[in-house]
Write a structure and sequence with these properties.
Keywords: Membrane, Transmembrane, Transmembrane helix. By secondary structure, this protein is an all-alpha fold. Helix 6 packs parallel to helix 8. The longest helix has about 35 residues.
Amino acid sequence: MRYLVVLAALLMPVMAWFTQRGAFGPGIGATADRYPTLLDVADYAFAIWALIFLWDLVFAFAQLHRHDHAALARTRPAAAAGFAFTALWMPLFSQQLFWPALLVIWLALACLAYCAVTLSRDHVALRQLRWRAWFPLSLHAGWLSLAVFLNTAQVIVAQRLLSPERMLPWNLALYAAAAALLLTLNARMHGNLGYVLAALWGLAAAYVQQSAATAPGARVAAGVAVTVAVALLAQSAWLRARVHRHIFSD
């Protein structure tokens, strides 16, 4: 399983490289641009994938050389699956296989969120594996927690499941669902730094994109993105303060 983690981690940047060169179709960016939504983020936001891939590789190679920690052993299969699903999503979306791509990205989130929650709840793992396992997997999970809703919105537009002319009501519902997911997972992880940073990066990029957009409801969506970011930041500060008080009261 250790070597499967490494192979899956290597597969992500390899698939990204081939996808960006049009090996599977018009590319992720070109495909996404065909189906604009009020959850779209500014293009610069996707640069976070380079950091995610790099840090996931750090995790993959670090876990080869450590004695098995209980939490690490539990997360290793899910991490390998999450990396593989992330890699698989790229050609599926590029080829506009929207339903399989949507299923795969939600599966990737489920796997990486499990890893982040598992490591966050193990105090020994947090001390010993903070930067080599907990942070990279949490960063990946945080970005996917927004990406799944962006992908969901694009599928809705592509398949014309709801009105692309009156997007604000159902896009607000997706923002609400994203907020609920972010706040719930962050609470379970007691204010996870990596998870929150990735989510805030995406929400800030959504604000930048929507505040400059001319689509009906875009300014409202920009305000909602800021509101969710502020709520997540405030929750994290409160959760971290609770943890701090608990440590010093024991």
